[in-house]
Amino acid sequence: MDKQLLNYFSDELLSDEKLELFQRIEKDKQLKNEYIRLQNLTAVSLLSSRNSDKEEGLRHFKIFSAQIRQYTQRRLYIRIAKYTAMALIIMASTVWLTLLLSDTATDHSMNRLHVPAGQRAQITLQDGTEVWLNAQSTLLYPSHFSRNNREVEIIGEAYFDVAKDKKRPFIVTTQHVELKVLGTQFNVYSYPGVGYIQTDLIEGSVKVFQKNQEKRAIVLKPNEQVIIRDGSMTVSKVYNPEHLLWKNGIYAFNNERLIDIIGKLQLYYDVQFVVEDPEIFNVRYTGKFRQRESIHDILQILQKIQYFKIERDRNSNVIRLTK
């Protein structure tokens, strides 16, 4: 049995470890089958006790009915009323308990949506919230939200259009940061290993805080962004709203250094860059590229602004840039 998989079902993995596991599941058919088997076993274990409760109620009802038929006609009517009432209570209690526990079990049954490199996806959650996922991103979400709140977890980048519900806040967890909203539109950029987390607010308001530090939260206003780096949060205006066009299949860069563009292309296309001449890093570029364009097409466009040589090793998926 895979140890990392067992730790996942024991809720002992960190966000970056979960992403690593999901990437392994995508590539390993045997591991994927084992994941599905364990997920099904978890769901069945949560529901098994409820079936027995219902069967027990029906068994008692049959016993009561058999006893009723043994009595005289006169006493039959009296006892029918008595036992029917008792049976209805048992069955009603069983149904109520089954529904209650089924709701609880469903809340804890988590689903996973992983988007591979070079792709994007859109999903509508049970409450009507719409979520767009960028490449190399994973969303963990329940089939049904609880009565008290709506919680999801994101690894990577996602755009949320949250359905309004004043009684149930919508909570997004990503690495060591939480975001709490009632109804709003915002973008979360949180790839493990990039060194920072960024949230851009488009509409409504969002409370951002580090886990277990809600009293020190900041509240974003529309057209504001927060960058969390090394434990500190910096709020500023959204300087380039066009970078949110990714959800429409467009990658936009506005006066960005090649080193920053390369960092994003590595995430989006699952390639590794090697730059032998650091001077290339400092050249700035502005442009838009459609997601369906290949990494080679994008690099050729960048070449026209500032020439550099491109060498690609397809076996290792490494791209080398030189002057």
**What is the typical, i.e. mean, pLDDT?**
79
N-to-C span = 49 Å
Q: Which spans have pLDDT < 50 for at least 5 consecutive residues?
A: 43-54, 87-107
SS elements, strand count? 18
- Quote the CATH topology of the largest domain: Jelly Rolls
Q: Helix amount, in percent? A: 25-40%
Strand content: 25-35%
- Domain module count: 3
Write the CATH architecture name of the largest domain.
Answer: Sandwich
The oligomeric status of these chains comes to single chain
Q: Helix count, per DSSP?
A: 6
Q: How is this fold's topology laid out?
A:
Elements: H1 3-9, H2 15-27, H3 29-68, H4 73-108, E1 110-115, E2 121-124, E3 130-133, E4 137-142, E5 150-161, E6 170-174, E7 177-181, E8 185-190, E9 197-203, E10 206-210, E11 218-220, E12 224-229, E13 232-237, E14 250-257, H5 258-269, E15 272-275, E16 284-290, H6 295-305, E17 309-313, E18 318-322
Parallel strand pairs: 5-6, 15-18
Antiparallel strand pairs: 1-4, 2-3, 3-5, 4-5, 5-8, 6-7, 7-10, 8-9, 9-12, 10-11, 12-13, 14-16, 17-18
What can you see in these coordinates?
- The chain is of the alpha+beta class.
- The protein folds into three domains: 106 residues, no CATH class; 132 residues, Jelly Rolls (Sandwich); 74 residues, Phage tail protein beta-alpha-beta fold (3-Layer(bab) Sandwich), CATH 3.55.50.
- Helix content is 37%, strand content 32%.
- The protein is built from six helices and 18 strands.
- The strands form three sheets. Strands 1, 2, 3, 4, 5, 6, 7, 8, 9, 10, 11, 12 and 13 form a 13-stranded mixed beta sheet that branches. Strands 15-18-17 form a three-stranded mixed beta sheet, with no helix packed on it.
- Helix 2 crosses helix 3 and helix 3 packs antiparallel against helix 4.
